Amino acid sequence: MQVEKTPMDSLPDRFDPWPPGAQPVVPTPGYPGTFTHSPAEAPIRRPVGRGQLTGPLDLDRKLPCGEMNLAMAEPGRPAIGQLIHIAGRILDEDGRPVRGAIVELWQANAAGRYFHPNDAMRDAPLDPNFIGNGRVRTDEEGGFGFFTVKPGAYPVPTKDVWWRPPHVHFSVIGPSSLSRLVTQMFFPGDPLNPFDHIFMAVPDEAARARLLATALPPAEVGAGWLGFRHDIVLRGRAATPPC
Q1: Residue 5 has pLDDT above 60, yes or no
Q2: Which of 39, 53, 105, 198 has the fewest CB atoms within 10 Å, counting from its CB?
């Protein structure tokens, strides 16, 4: 006897949250580090539990916030480079603000060097007044902001040398484990963007555009700083790609 299928039986057993090409290709060709840091097998699918939906809680108590001014960590000691302000909102898949999210930023200095032991072998100088990392908590509208300097480009030490364009790393921890995102922000119109293996690892052009900041009119920002806006969407089909 043939059993008639119900509407529930006809539903797929999985749902792809992103359209094709919206996620970066990993391992990334031309970037050896992604071959050693990328899983070789597909992730194991399992039901979402309460821990993934409701926690962790009170992150701002465990991760102290308030480090929003990277450009002048101490009064009278500004960092070297073009001063910029980056502001935006953290949004969920429905465009609603994510309140109380922890937003971390880290970047190279204006010479393209990180304040980190792993970047100690390069000739680019360190800036004693620039550490290059900060952490803030989003407000009721999901807003965040950082004062910093525009990072410099730097070469990637591979057989076929290529350069990373100016970029800023973001880590966002939302109200649940499912809203965790590590991504990068790129600057619009930079000539190195099309040659960057990380940026171009996102095949879909519209998805790549979500990695680009929007330059603000100087008259809107005021003297002393260049302004950029960058909203980050944590999940859904319009999500900011991880990278």
Answers
A1: no
A2: 39
